[in-house]
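Many introductory courses stop at the sequence. We go one step further.
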Amino acid sequence: MPRPLPRSTANPTDPEPWMTLLHVPIIDLRPYFGGTPEGKADVARAVDAACRHIGFLVVTNHGIDPALIERVSRLSRAFFALPLADKRRVDRPRDDAVRGFSAVGEEGLSYSLEEAAPGDLKESFSIGPPDVPDDDYHRGPAAGAHFEPNVWPEGVPGFAEACTAYFEAMSGLARTLMRTFALGLGLPETFFDGKIDRHISMFRVLSYPPQKEAPLPGQMRAGAHSDYGSLTIVRPDDAGLQVFNKAGQWVDVPMVDGGLVVNIGDLMQQWTNDQWTSTLHRVANPPADDARRDARRQSLVFFHQPDYDAVVECLPVCLAPGESPRHAPVTSGDHLTSKFVKQTTFGGTKATA
């Protein structure tokens, strides 16, 4: 049975506060940004329920400029429209340095769960933190590949500037969401701030080409997987994202005008001792007779990841008397590196398109 919400966030008029959510809820962030204790508590309570039961939510009134979203989307489409040879000039350099371009089939998300499946039917372009300080924390041996420089294509004016601005905007929204997480868990609002102030997050544009040929058996636009870090913020431009709920059903994530999809990742589940759910999700192929099969789908995805040396271990508020932590402590950086090596390595050999 889940731990009761803190008294400040409880809703005594709700007759069944722990009824399992089987569909992704839509949560308005306006009351949180209003700054009142009551507004923040209402949002925190809704977020806590979503994270416990289905691990996904759609947020509205999030404060991200629609013009910025449109600009990044448009320029990303211009990048993916380039000839393959041009995109290959900014190829991902190696498995632990997630920067630049990856072609169709070069990643298999199911492999992060150690499950075999053909490579995913998507291309991607990835960046990490921009404007990295030249100090030992960011450039020393302990930093590994987490602050590798970003690479940028030629022939798409304004692409680098737009992606950098989007990374910074998402970083701010992620900090806000982590504060709602803290309140929902009964922690001080800024509890996570010091664990994400030098975060190793990644922004990826995922492009799913038209499916001119039938997929291989078991092949999807993105195979079933859970995300790795604290949270993910997604702006999809079409349907297809599905969540595996606790009733064992694949359910569609709703498309909401102006909304952003948020889900928690494995580290957030570990922090909460499995009280919150890092849910399996996938991007399904359109049906064979669906017109969307002939269209390119695109998602803007911000994977928020705490500082590489942040130790993720069971929060005391998530440990009932007599209960033991279910996960060994792990640093954010070590966890992320191990997952990426799995998703890009197929039986020891990197997949090729």
